[in-house]
Amino acid sequence: MRRAAGIAIVTALVIACSPAPPTTQQLAQEAAAAMGGADRLRAIKTLAMKGGVGTRLRLGQTVHATDTETPATLKNVVETVDLANGRAQLDYELQLGVFGQHRKETLTKKNGRAVGLEDVAGRPLAIMSPSGLFSWGTQNNPEVLLRRNIITVMSAALMSPTSDAPSDRQLDGKTYKYGTATLANGERVGLYFDPQSKLLSAYETTDTETMLGDLPAQYLLADYRDINGVKLPHTITIRKGSQPYSDVRFSSASIDDPADDSLFAIPDSANAEVDKAIQAGDYSPIAISKIGDGVYFARAYSHNSMIVEFPAWLAVVEAAYTDAQSATLVRALNEQFPGKPIRYAIVTHHHFDHTGGVRGLAAAGATILVEKGHEPLLRRIVESPHTNPPDALETARKSGKAGALEIYEGKKVLSDGKQTLELYPITGNPHVDPKVIVYAPSARALFQSDLFIPGVGAPAGPEAAHLLKSVQDLKLRVDRNVGGHGGVAPFAELVKAVAATGK
After folding, report:
1. Could you tell me if 94 and 29 lie in one domain?
2. What is the total count of domains within the chain?
3. Residue at 419 is within a domain
4. Is the pTM of this model over 0.70?
5. CATH number of the domain bearing residue 29
6. Hey, is 12 helix, strand or coil?
7. Same domain as 98, residue 161
8. 216 and 81: one domain?
9. Is residue 69 assigned to a domain?
10. Following DSSP, what letter does each residue of 288-338 receive, concatenated?
11. 171 and 253 assigned to the same domain
């Protein structure tokens, strides 16, 4: 009995004298110390990661909706976060096959109010709400960059509850110390600390992608390098929904560079449009003009729509680019056609830059007309939950006012009174297959996107030649070519451009 009691006493003393397991906050403190110190991290006002090269997936640019995606390449990537003022910019060059763009997407502020600037080489600067920014960079938009950068996450980790006990967790075959933290906006973030280096090796949370909805996201950090006494990861790999999303390897970085402030400057010439965007809320520039009997052209910053007026309702051809553009279009149509709801929104193809406003029009109650070949992607876009933060469609669903998908196959005709709209799926086009072209007989107007750019003197490629042959085979009497890009021009322009190619 005495021997057993003695063993119990010794065991209790050993347990009592053993160091307590570290808390998540202590692991964060160790990580901060390895990075240069918590005070140095907290003092950072601006951070710019520069000279990045990498890849981006989940762009929604395949020929068929079910095709496996080819990664786009990224180069000259610069990601800048102004932590002190809540601003961020994505600056990069993207190449996907023969398509390339240099883009800057900027979340900035005027008088403390957020606004978005989109600057694409070859286009005028576009002013919009932050929700109107469309990105093919390493992130969904600059606002996500502001929430997901290493400094923001580490600051939250350093504020973790002292009672939070981490656990061992596997990631890619290696064991890490895993804990959780809460960001300033209430989001929970999982943290993976390397027990050897003490550094933060990864973090995870739920991202809400504009096109793909709520996805579990992992951010993998590597190649920590010293920048003015602070160690920062220079290789960042992002997975969303357990699939590759983007990766980038930066060559350099800067901290608190005074020159970064100029990246967020608003040109004097843009101030009036900025004030308009801030006042409107969700906003993207749109101008509506009449092109025929009950047919209207909605010219946007880069991706246009066509509006067809029926006796008691409207149809929108192409829900393009972003939900902010759809919100702006809905407001404009409510003013111009009071009492006439948008009954239908027509999808011409599944590419994300031409379906980015689908959820916004569904939130306005529109039925989304989708050709069967586009259904695999469009069903996911419309039906996936978007909760972080909730979007307009998520809110409309709760009130029972949301529109739904309607799938059709082959030619479809909308008709009411004397107005008719004809939808023709064409197959075999090298850009996208199938492709829906839309014909309004009352104006002899044909809407098509990505196949030819009307009104700008564009050359005709194989997509345009296929378009012309399809229109001829369908025996459509077309006077006006309405472009998802470009403008409205005589159909003879397309005929002449194709003839010039000799095909």
Report:
1. yes
2. 2
3. yes
4. yes
5. 2.50.20.10
6. helix
7. yes
8. yes
9. yes
10. EEEEETTEEEEEESS--EEEEE-SS-EEEE---S-HHHHHHHHHHHHHHST
11. yes
Residue 312 covered by a domain: yes
Question: What does each of the 503 residues of the chain score in pLDDT, given as a tens digit?
Answer: 455 555 445 444 444 444 567 899 999 999 999 999 999 999 999 999 999 999 999 999 999 999 999 999 999 999 999 999 999 999 999 999 999 999 999 999 999 999 999 999 999 999 999 999 999 999 999 999 999 999 999 999 999 886 778 999 999 999 999 999 999 999 999 999 999 999 999 999 999 999 999 999 999 999 999 999 999 999 999 999 999 999 999 999 999 999 999 999 999 999 999 999 999 999 999 999 999 999 999 999 999 999 999 999 999 999 999 999 999 999 999 999 999 999 999 999 999 999 999 999 999 999 999 999 999 999 999 999 999 999 999 999 999 999 999 999 999 999 999 999 999 999 999 999 999 999 999 999 999 999 999 999 999 999 999 999 999 999 999 999 999 999 999 999 999 999 999 86
Q: How many CA atoms lie within 13 A of 430 on its CB side?
A: 9
Phi, psi of 426 (to 5 degrees): -110, 145
**Residue found by looking up tokens 């700008």 in the block:** 456
CB 178 within 8 A of CB 166: yes
Structural domain for 254, as ranges: 24-264
CATH code of the domain containing 377: 3.60.15.10
- CB-neighbour burial class of residue 495 (10 A; exposed 0-12, middle 13-18, buried 19+): middle
Same-domain check for residues 201 and 82: yes
Q: For residue 264, give both structure tokens.
A: 């967020």
Contacts of 353 (CB under 8 A, 6+ apart): 60, 134, 303, 320, 321
258 and 310 together in one domain: no
Q: How many CB atoms lie within 10 A of CB 122?
A: 6
Tell me the β-bridge partners of 52: 77
- Contact, 476 vs 489, CB < 8 A? no
